[in-house]
């Protein structure tokens, strides 16, 4: 199942890993490999990227950040082709994302001997950017019968899918809620009318996808590969200025 019906799909710059992810999923469709195992693998790859940053192998760090993005898409694709959606995988994926984002920022902070304030602001900016993109995207997915394992406002633990245990869903939901609730609530209150106005043109969603996690990893990879490691964190602080710009633009479109 695709995340959106064909009519509402858009050019997602953050989703460049989708095609290789589908190749991987189709390759593994009839094997014993599970989506959760792919999620664990992308966690390992993300840690390796951090290791390359710490040892100043920035080109390889960039390659592994892109590989992480591909595997980040592959677990969901494998769940779709195997027809085994799960909240366990959905929450574990998101938990790994924010933990790896933290470690990536800290790794860059360490090798650049920068300011901890800059690192904190960059991390907060990265999370707010990704949260805004996910907020609008999930609204579309819920409205048009796309993938529904994500919800607009995660207030309560969902009912487990067949094949997964409720206690694990509850545990992972609790961890997810601790890590993401603040960011989700900030974006929700910044644009709480968005769920009532789901008229997001495809061009708008394509633009907002530049804030998605895949786009962020690609931008980091390019900057690291060109030896611009000292500029990565300041760039993402400045990049956060697009958050209010897109919120205002969304309101203008739906005025």
Polypeptide structure, described:
The protein has 255 residues and is mostly helical. The chain has a single domain, classed as CDP-alcohol phosphotransferase transmembrane (TM) domain (Four Helix Bundle (Hemerythrin (Met), subunit A)), CATH 1.20.120. The protein is 69% helix and 0% strand. It is built from 10 helices and no strands. The longest helix is centred in the middle third of the chain and has 28 residues, at 116-143.
Question: What's the structural blueprint in terms of helices and strands?
Answer:
Layout: H1 18-28, H2 35-54, H3 58-81, H4 87-112, H5 116-143, H6 166-190, H7 202-208, H8 213-225, H9 229-239, H10 242-253
CATH second-level architecture: Up-down Bundle
Q: Helical percent range?
A: 55-70%
Structural class: mainly alpha
Q: Describe the sheet with the most strands.
A: none
When the domains are counted, the total is 1
CATH superfamily: CDP-alcohol phosphotransferase transmembrane (TM) domain
Strand segment count: 0
Total helical elements:
10
- Distance linking N and C termini: 33 Å
Q: Judging from the principal axes of the Cα atoms, what is the shape?
A: globular
Spans of at least 5 consecutive residues whose pLDDT stays below 50 are: none
Short description:
This protein is mostly helical and 255 residues long.
């Amino acid at each position: 199942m695709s995340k959106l019906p064909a009519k509402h799909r858009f050019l997602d710059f953050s989703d460049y890993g989708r095609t290789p992810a589908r190749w991987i999923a189709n390759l593994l469709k009839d094997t014993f490999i599970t989506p959760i195992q792919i999620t664990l693998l992308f966690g390992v790859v993300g840690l390796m990227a951090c290791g390359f940053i710490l040892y100043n192998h920035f080109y390889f760090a960039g390659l592994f950040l892109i590989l992480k993005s591909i595997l980040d898409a592959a677990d969901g694709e494998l769940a779709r082709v195997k027809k085994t959606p799960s909240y366990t995988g959905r929450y574990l994926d998101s938990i790994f994302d924010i933990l790896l984002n933290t470690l990536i920022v800290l790794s860059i902070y360490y090798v650049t001997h920068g300011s901890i304030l800059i690192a904190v602001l960059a991390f907060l900016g990265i999370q707010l950017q990704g949260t805004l993109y996910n907020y609008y995207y999930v609204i579309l997915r819920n409205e048009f019968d796309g993938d529904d394992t994500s919800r607009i406002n995660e207030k309560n633990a969902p009912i487990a899918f067949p094949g997964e245990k409720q206690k694990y869903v509850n545990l992972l939901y609790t961890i997810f809620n601790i890590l993401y609730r603040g960011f989700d609530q900030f974006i929700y209150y910044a644009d709480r009318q968005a769920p009532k106005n789901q008229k997001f043109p495809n061009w708008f969603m394509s633009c907002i996808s530049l804030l998605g996690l895949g786009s962020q990893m690609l931008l980091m990879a390019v900057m690291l590969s060109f030896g611009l490691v000292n500029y990565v964190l300041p760039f993402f602080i400045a990049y956060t200025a697009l958050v209010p710009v897109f919120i205002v633009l969304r309101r203008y479109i739906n005025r």
